[in-house]
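Researcher: Structure for this, please.
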Amino acid sequence: MSEPPLLEVRDLSRHFNAGGSLLPGHRPRRIQAVDGVSFDLAEGETLGLVGESGCGKSTLGRLILRLIEPTAGAVLFEGRDVTQLSGQALRETRRRIQMVFQDPYSSLDPRMRIGTVIREPLDIFRVGTGPERRRRVGELLERVGLDAGYAARFPHELSGGQRQRVGIAAALALEPRLIVADEPVSALDVSVQAQILNLLHRLQQELRLAVIFIAHNLDVVEHISDRVAVMYLGKLVEIAPTERLFSAPEHPYTRALLSAIPIPDPTRSFHPQPLPGELPSPLDPPTGCRFHPRCADALPICAEARPALLSYAPGCAVACHVAAHRLGLVAVREEGGAP
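Model: Predicted structure, token format:
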């Protein structure tokens, strides 16, 4: 019998009011930042979450941590619905889910020494004695590749890569089971990005962490992720094991993203497939498949019916009428659970 997932996201949505007319009979406009997203995450698995800026990736990460409240849906962590917890139960769950933020320049308090930044979670949750916490800070610094002497420094004395290592150390302080890393390398130089990616991969393997790695670039997640999920305009459009998704993507949006990755081989030609048109507004998403106005393969049904996220192999699912027909799946049906 297989182990239950560590994390289960079920039909999760977050819609934001965007103002609008105050006249009688006019409903407020709403931004559908995340709309009916479902997936599972196993213990020790790394899921890459990718898509264009504004597709809802960061909002989804914050919903999982309950930093913002969902409009609908559920987030089950270790079998308990995080969206229904409060008080001590929510506090204990948050101890086991931590976040690494995008910008190492703004995520650290400039007035706090590095040792205080890393020790703060231990102080809040009253983990260990004072000497034990100080010792733990030194251990965490060394685990992320920094000397224990960095504890006495301030953030402005560190490079961007060093600051991100501090952010990772602080996230590990309470020994979480799940890390949500929100574009943790996008603000870093390319030469430093590889170092942070390698560090995260090593820590994930050593500590058996589950990781949701959020990025806007498929190339970044290829070498760190076990599976990759692709979002478009608040919806999950494809999810598959990394090798399968990169070698045989089923959704036309995924294929377009992959075609934009430069090939570091002068003997091979580079043929990106630019998407026509502009990204639609989440205030007024297209009917049916949200990608259909930019899709060269679109059929009439694509403008009429929203495609379900259908599973076609273990760990694989796609929300596309054309792909469903090609794979021999049911073309149209109500959206169901996670793959």
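Researcher: Any notable elements?
Model: The two ends are 18 Å apart (CA to CA). Residues 190-207 form the longest helix (18 residues).
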